[in-house]
Amino acid sequence: MDEPYDFGFCITGVVFLLMLFVPNIMWTRKGKTIGYVESAKKENKVLLIFERVGQVAVSTALVFFSALNPKVMVLVDGLYFEWKIIIWMMALTLMILYECYWMKYFKSSKTMKDYYSSFVGFPLAGATLPVMAVLLLGIYSENVIVICSAIILGIGHIGIHYMHKKEIKRNMDKFMI
């Protein structure tokens, strides 16, 4: 049984990172959201630092803490899953929803409103879904480093998305006057 801070290869983390990176690479190659480049120039520098530090910390933690992998215990009368596997499954579900959010986005007109939209009840889905998934992995593995990394990423990433969403609303309100 892995301890929360045992170093080792984490297939779960690699899969989650692929689920994060592939749509973002596609987004970069297919052309960014209309108006994004101008808006990104106005990003809060403190939030940007939190986001970058969080990205590095989360990426590193996801690959090197083997306790993030699901645990299955074999007993004499069959398989037994820890109750905590539900938390791991919730994290995976959030990442699947994140992929669905991106599919919806790629089929949209690719406006700022589309990019910062909610998805199945999750506000700012492009930011909240992966951050919540990593936070759940940290809770599942009882690894404070992963939990803190997710919180730092969340402050920056969700904070930046929230600021952009406020800017969109402000710009829309100007035209409604």
Kindly describe this structure.
This protein is mostly helical and 177 residues long. The chain has one domain (11-176). It is 68% helix and 5% strand. The chain contains 7 helices and 2 strands, in the order H-H-H-E-E-H-H-H-H. It has a two-stranded antiparallel sheet with strand order 1-2. Helix 6 runs antiparallel to helix 7 (144-176). It is elongated and about 60 Å long.
Q: Give unreliable regions as ranges.
A: none
Query: Helix tally?
Result: 7
Mean pLDDT across all residues, rounded?
89
| Oligomeric description of these chains | single chain
Helix-strand pattern: HHHEEHHHH
> Could you give the order of strands across the largest sheet?
1-2
The rounded Rg comes to 18 Å
* Count of discrete domains: 1
The secondary-structure class comes to: mainly alpha
Total beta strands? 2
| Major β-sheet annotation | 2 strands, antiparallel
Helical percentage: 55-70%
Q: What form results from the Cα inertia axes?
A: elongated
Q: Between the first and last Cα atoms, what is the distance in angstroms?
A: 62 Å
Keywords: Membrane, Transmembrane, Transmembrane helix
Transmembrane segments: 6-25, 46-65, 85-103, 115-138, 144-164
Output the keywords.
mainly alpha; transmembrane helix; membrane; elongated; transmembrane; 177 residues; 7 helices
Topology:
Layout lengths: L10 H19 L6 H5 L4 H20 L7 E4 L2 E4 L3 H23 L4 H4 L9 H17 L2 H33 L1
Antiparallel strand pairs: 1-2
Helix pairs in contact: 1-3, 1-4, 3-7, 4-6, 6-7
